[in-house]
Structure formats: structure tokens, C-alpha cells
Amino acid sequence: MYRKEEEFDYTRFLWLKKRPLKLIKFVLLISLFLILGYAIYFFANLPDVSYLKSENPKITALMQLRIDQAKAENKKFKLRQKWVRYQAIPDLLKKSIRISEDASFYKHDGIDFEELKESLKRNLEEGELARGGSTITQQLAKNLYLSTEKSFLRKIKEYFIAKRLEKELSKYRIFHLYLNVIEFGRGVFGVEAASRFYFGKSVGNLTLEEMVRLTAIIPRPLITNPKGNSRWLKWKCKWILRKLALYNYIDQAACDAALLSFE
Fold first, then answer.
1. Is 182 buried (19+), middle (13-18) or exposed (0-12) by CB count in 10 A?
2. 18, 100, 234, 243: least CB-packed within 10 angstroms?
3. 203 and 258 assigned to the same domain
4. Is residue 116 within 8 Å of 136, Cβ to Cβ?
5. How many domains are contained in the chain?
6. What is the pLDDT of residues 135-164, one digit of tens each?
């Protein structure tokens, strides 16, 4: 009798010992199915960007967000956006925006990993998403399809949409779309609308100083007026001018003359 009980206890011990292992395997299997299911859902719901090859978006996610915010706050809102041909935008403005927002635009495939590494390093040091490290393609992805929320999930979506944009569209088309939908102030989108709203002229007639002022406010479109004279705006404009001179997009004389406007 004693030996039977002992044998029974040993068998029960082995069963109990294996039970946690089976439970762990079950949980891992369920987790794997959930992750796989979410991945399938995630990729199935990424936007089809191929239509952008020949069509301009009538409205972007960011425009709609600003409209909804104004309604929620019971404020009047006027959307200002006017499409302009790529060739009608001054080359100097294109260069100014490119060196300010994404100097490696023509070298990467949507993601600037060196800039991303620096951004991640700074964010980890500060414990928050303080620096985005977004390329022009990523900014376009966010403006067209996403929100302004600072989260890792949004950055992941932004990454995959940017990769799709680079796969489906030419660099020329990506930059053309970007220049026409980028935010320049409350209700102001695109370089043509911004030029008319702030300076009362078409983008093709902007002066060097006006181009630099518009470029400078892109990172802070809702809190900075390009016609203002804040310390930050002056610093940013000087930085852009010196970069333009460094890349030989303007000569030193033109740079020095323009710098005087921001003293």
C-alpha cells in the first residue's frame, strides 16, 4: 500500500511539473497568433498610395484634423491650399526646404537611418519623443494619412507608409506632393497658399528672404509667423542662409546681404 501511494505521488509530481511548461507553451502560441493576426490586419489597412502617381489628394489627414479641431472648439476655420506645378516653385525655395528638412532626401529610400539613430538616442536620454528624425517622405506620410500624435505606433505606421511612397512614387513626385500639402500655419497648406497668405504674392515671386522665412517655420507652423522677428526665427533663418551658402546655392555676397535682415 505504501509503495502504491508513493508511486501515485511521483506520477502526480511529474504531471504538476509539466503543467506550467504546457501553460507557457499555450500562452506563447496564443500570443503568436494574436501578433500574426494584428500584423495581417496592420498591413491590410495600410493605404494604397499608387493613385498619387497621377492624382492630387483633395484633402489630407492633417487638414481634416485641423477642421475637426476647429469644430470641437467652435472656432471659424478657413482652409487655404492651392496646388502649384513643381516647375513653378523656385529652385532656391526647393533647395532651402530640402537642406532644412531633409538634406539626404535624394540619397535615402524614405528613412534616414543616421538621423533616426540620433533621434532615438536623444529620445532615450530625455525619456520622451522630443526629436522626430523624420524625412520629407515620412512627413508626407504623416500629413496625408496619420495624426500629429507622438507615439511609437504612429512612427511605425509612418515608417511603412513612407516605404510604400518611395516604392510607388518618384522622388520628384514625393517632393511635389510635400510642397503642396505641408502646413504653414492655421489653415494654410502648401507653398503657394503660404506665399499668398503671408506675402500677398505667388510663390514664383518670392524674394530670398521670404523663401527663407517660409522655410524656417515648417517645424513650428502653428506658433511661428514668418513675418515675425522672434529670436528663434532669426536664428533659424540665419542657419538656413548659411547652409545655402555652404552648398553654393547662393554666393557669399547674397548670403551676407540677407543676413542683415535678421540682425
1. buried
2. 18
3. yes
4. no
5. 2
6. 999 999 999 999 777 777 888 899 999 999
